[in-house]
Amino acid sequence: MSNAADDLVLVINSGSSSIKYQLLDPETGAVAASGLVERIGEREGAVEHRAGGRTIERTEAIADHKAGLQVVFDLFAETGYDLSGAGVRAVGHRVVHGGEVFYEPTLITDAVVEEISKLSALAPLHNPANVTGIESTRELLPGVPQVAVFDTAFFHGLPEAARTYAIDAKVAAAHGIRRYGFHGTSHEYVSGQVAQVLDRDPETLRQIVFHLGNGASASAIRGGKPIDTSMGLTPLEGLVMGTRGGDIDPGIIGHLVRSAHFDIDRIEELLNRNSGIKGLSGVNDFRELQRLIDAGDAAARLAYDVYIHRLRRYLGGYLIELGGVDAITFTAGVGENSPQVRADALAGLSGFGIEVDPARNTAANRSARLISPPDAPVAVLVVPTNEELAIARAARQVVSER
């Protein structure tokens, strides 16, 4: 096969030990190839590459992100796309934290990479990995324009009351402490899709969006612009997640330091990797959680109940903050695939005009759709997120404006 990548955008999502990627057409959303590299730096890594109706799976040692990307590029060539030859139009990189510096898609330069690295203090688990992926890709594709798209950008303009923490203002200003919000690319994309599904002007809509995956966040959106979101300075705040507990009393940290002699590394390990669903039940995969619940596991049932309780707290808060709601939308892995979560999160709310139609909710349908009754005052939807497409379109826009 000859190179067919010239009009496509390569999207890279570089994690601490993984690389997710897609090569896609930003105009149509058609995916030419996609894949995942996992367990980078471990004894045995794993690679899955899908292109042209083929799926290639390999296990091999992958020393670092540059080696992982080289494997990816080799697989692209093997399946007909010579990325280092005629090349892709652009590369779009997901970057988790943009701080106060970056709030729109940005063409990557040495200075931009340096600034993203500095922001690692605000996202120590994410930004360093993002930078590693950027640097490696720039080495492998030195002549291709590359664009950073920031998770925090959509929430940059939050109202001052929503983004401000009630701590010493001088301390907050000196250390960049404010609500930044995350999953912004998903919230922006999904809320835009809602307007299309409902055939409504986004300016007329009051929306609540639940992005429920291993990481989870909620947003309140009025007139196409967010007015609040659940994640804060870091992705630790807010909803109960796979391995993160979301909102806690900050006094718990001091208590653990004094009473259990935890140091900061152990606290961060607890809050980031051993809390949430996993901390309560021992598993963080929602499918496994459901199997445990069906088997009568009390800890799994409690984890689920805590998860739903937190969702409903945020729903109620945003309902009041918006002064009513026109659309409630579920997206991401759990949001798109768990009818039970959707039903339980909205149970007993018919007095607010919020209902879920059981048949619509459980129908085997992967497209953006309504799951509320036809005559319900509030539209309840499931909308598959597509952060890769949003990143690809943002990258194309930046490159076309050069």
Over the alpha carbons, how many angstroms does the gyration radius reach? Answer: 21 Å
Based on helices, strands and strand pairing, what is the structural class?
A: alpha/beta
Compute the number of strand runs: 14
Cα separation of the termini: 31 Å
What is the global morphology?
Answer: globular
Q: Could you estimate the helical fraction of the residues in percent? A: 25-40%
Note poorly predicted spans.
Answer: none
Strand order of the largest sheet: 5-4-3-2-1-6-8-7
The main sheet comes to: 8 strands, mixed
Overall pLDDT, averaged?
A: 93
| Secondary-structure element pattern, one letter each | EEEEEHEEHHEHHHEEEHHHHHEHHHEEH
Residue fraction in strands: 15-25%
Q: Please, how many helices?
A: 15
Task: Give a quick set of tags describing it.
402 residues, six-stranded mixed beta sheet, 38% helix, eight-stranded mixed beta sheet, 15 helices, 14 strands, alpha/beta
